[in-house]
Amino acid sequence: MFAKHYLAEFFGTLILVLFGCGAAVFAGPEIGHTGIAFAFGLAIVTVAYGFGHWSGAHVNPAVTLGVLIAGRMRPQRALGYIVAQCLGAMAGAAIIYLIATGQGGTATQFGQNQYADGALQAALVFEFVATLIFVSMILGVTSRAENALIAGVAIGLTLTAIHLVGIPLTGTSVNPARSLGPALFAGGIALSQLWLFLLAPAAAGVIAGMGQRLLERP
């Protein structure tokens, strides 16, 4: 019954990873952190207006958890969203892998998230706080029907701002699926650090959902 919703989440997350991580992998030296940040932000704007009317364009398990805890969707449907998002991220990362390895030489960068030695605390704090802000903003802006036309732009600009701060710290995740896909192909450090990029955003999404639920109480 919800096949179109799951397909929208799959392709939306694929686009986010392909455009955002792809910009970092293939054009990073030319466009810099600012360009990469806008690539992620513009990808979200594209997905929001292209697929939002089908699934809400979560393309992020942390967002889906926030929506679930806020009482806006059922657990079974939320689980389907998260599975579709993770598969879409893997597919997007696979496309990047095929392009990168098809250029000759050994490819090691696939847009994976990671933090420097000794920077665990900084990475944890940033990913949690940034995701909490991001999901709270999404829940807030989508809580009013009159915001429908501008919601995609607001969400995209927020993600851009988050990337401008976070790229030097962790590469910016705020999205467990976005981190999972590239890490599976990068392996090594990215895979060993993946737990942080799964747990911190997920926890922040849950807390954002709890906060929104409290705010929406009559």
TrEMBL record:
Membrane topology annotation: Multi-pass membrane protein
Regions crossing the membrane: 37-57, 78-100, 120-141, 148-171, 183-208
Taxonomy, superkingdom: Bacteria
Subcellular location: Cell membrane
Gene Ontology CC terms: plasma membrane
InterPro entries linked to this entry: Aquaporin-like (IPR023271), Aquaporin_transptr (IPR034294), MIP (IPR000425), MIP_CS (IPR022357)
Keyword set, alphabetical order: Cell membrane, Membrane, Transmembrane, Transmembrane helix, Transport
GO MF terms held by the record: water channel activity
Annotated Pfam families: MIP
Family affiliation: Belongs to the MIP/aquaporin (TC 1.A.8) family.
PANTHER family the record matches: AQUAPORIN TRANSPORTER, MIP17260P
Protein name per Swiss-Prot or TrEMBL: Aquaporin Z 2
Lineage: Bacteria, Pseudomonadati, Pseudomonadota, Betaproteobacteria, Neisseriales
Gene that produces this protein: aqpZ2
